[in-house]
Amino acid sequence: MKPVVFSGSFDPVTNGHIELIKRACAVFGSVVVVVCHNGNKQGRFSVQERVAFLQEALAGQPHITVDVAQGLLADYMRAHGYTTVVRGLRTAHDWNHERTQAYFNKSLYPELETVFLPADERYQFISSSAIKEAAAVGADVSTWVPACVARALKK
Prior knowledge:
Layout: E1 4-8, H1 15-28, E2 31-36, H2 47-57, E3 64-69, H3 73-80, E4 84-89, H4 92-108, E5 113-118, H5 128-136, H6 147-154
Parallel strand pairs: 1-2, 1-4, 2-3, 4-5
């Protein structure tokens, strides 16, 4: 069975992301976490830093790997022969956004299927943007992010 892809900008990765990635692995057996560069957003962390955070947070998970995609996710999926992407849903806003993305990805790569996993209630209101805003004013965000990210945000 081919691995599924769990993609995102992960700027920064949150405990909600980590929980969804592990659940996807439990369901599908193998996950490739793909860090996507979003040219529309000014990233707080470089792509290389985000990859390092994910690798540290997911250490010891033999069926989870981390990779980077440049350009469209559909192109990355096609180039690697992957056909399933898993996306997490926190709110109705996420549902609307993710359904639109799923439509465009499928239009660009008809073999691609998108599977949605609902966020655990502990993480429904956590977003990378909120984490960055809180950390910028000195809030302790260690409850919501892996330890490696909390340390980096303190600097």
